[in-house]
């Protein structure tokens, strides 16, 4: 099945999306947190990213990334799409990757950890050494995610992400666009001001395939050993590296200390 196929699978509404808007038992769609003008603003940012030259969208196949992937393919935007396959993703994520291929074609390129670096990491800290300290967890993220990201972004002039300001305490000041000094490019966050319910309104409206883990209270999905379901009232990213303090729960892909807004 390709990107023009009309055969789609209905998208369920996860309880998290309903709870976020206080709409338990109601559908998210027309009359309930419709994304409306948000789509237009997101498309403007996506087109601005494409206009920079070689633009690339990173996807972990979470709900937000699926919105952006659908928009890029639907609007035929010249933006390359890639994912970081750490080797420790959930089986549900791999199943979604197969569904994405069926729906959109092979539009997503996978990048993998360097084999030598990965072998050295496991030899030094063991299979699950990332649980022992923040430093060891960050070392694991560097090998499995940060270094492959650098290769994936090499030569790019714009990087598009699915980050939202409402996702966690580490992202509350997220701008729509910023300069990423670490990678030497412009970084675009088209969904920076979207709510969770607006994300799911879009996914339902366009029957976009999603990760089945979302239905089991996994709003943010990363590597299997480092992601758990959350409980009512928890931060949407509380299930990521849950054994650490909230302020430390980033993997190093989105470091903003060296970033600044683009010049007017």
Topology of this structure?
Layout: H1 15-20, H2 37-51, E1 55-58, H3 63-74, E2 79-84, H4 91-104, E3 108-111, H5 115-125, H6 134-153, E4 158-160, E5 177-180, E6 185-188, H7 196-205
Parallel strand pairs: 1-2, 1-4, 2-3, 4-6
Antiparallel strand pairs: 5-6
Helix pairs in contact: 3-7, 5-6
Structure overview:
With 264 residues, this protein is α/β, with parallel strands linked by helices. It has one domain: 3-Layer(aba) Sandwich (Rossmann fold), CATH 3.40.50.620. Helix content is 33%, strand content 9%. The chain contains 7 helices and 6 strands; from the N terminus they run ααβαβαβααβββα. It has helices at 15-20, 37-51, 63-74, 91-104, 115-125, 134-153, 196-205; strands spanning 55-58, 79-84, 108-111, 158-160, 177-180, 185-188. Strands 3-2-1-4-6-5 form a 6-stranded mixed β-sheet. β5 and β6 (185-188) form a beta hairpin. The longest helix has 20 residues, at 134-153. It is globular and about 50 Å long. It starts with 14 loop residues before the first helix and ends in a 59-residue tail after the last helix.
């Amino acid at each position: 099945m390709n990107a023009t196929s009309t055969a789609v699978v209905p998208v369920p509404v996860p309880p998290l999306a309903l709870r976020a808007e206080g709409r338990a038992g109601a559908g998210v769609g027309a009359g309930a947190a419709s994304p409306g003008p948000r789509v237009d603003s997101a498309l403007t940012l996506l087109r601005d990213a494409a206009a920079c030259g070689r633009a690339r969208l990173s996807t972990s196949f979470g709900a937000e990334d699926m919105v952006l992937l659908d928009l890029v393919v639907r609007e035929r935007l010249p933006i390359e799409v890639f994912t970081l396959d750490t080797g420790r993703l959930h089986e549900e994520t791999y199943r979604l990757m197969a569904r994405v291929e069926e729906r959109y074609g092979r539009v997503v390129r996978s990048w993998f950890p360097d084999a030598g670096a990965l072998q050295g990491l496991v030899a030094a800290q063991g299979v699950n050494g990332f649980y022992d300290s923040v430093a060891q967890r960050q070392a694991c993220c560097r090998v499995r995610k940060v270094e492959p990201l650098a290769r994936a972004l090499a030569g790019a002039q714009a990087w598009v992400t699915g980050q939202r300001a409402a996702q966690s305490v580490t992202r509350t000041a997220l701008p729509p666009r910023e300069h990423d000094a670490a990678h030497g490019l412009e970084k675009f966050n088209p969904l920076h001001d979207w709510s969770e319910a607006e994300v799911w309104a879009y996914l339902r409206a366009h029957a976009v395939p999603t990760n089945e883990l979302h239905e089991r209270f996994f709003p943010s999905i990363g590597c299997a050993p480092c992601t758990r379901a959350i409980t009512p009232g928890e931060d949407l990213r509380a299930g990521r590296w849950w054994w650490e303090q909230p302020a430390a729960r980033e993997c190093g892909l989105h470091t903003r200390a060296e970033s600044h807004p683009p010049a007017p």
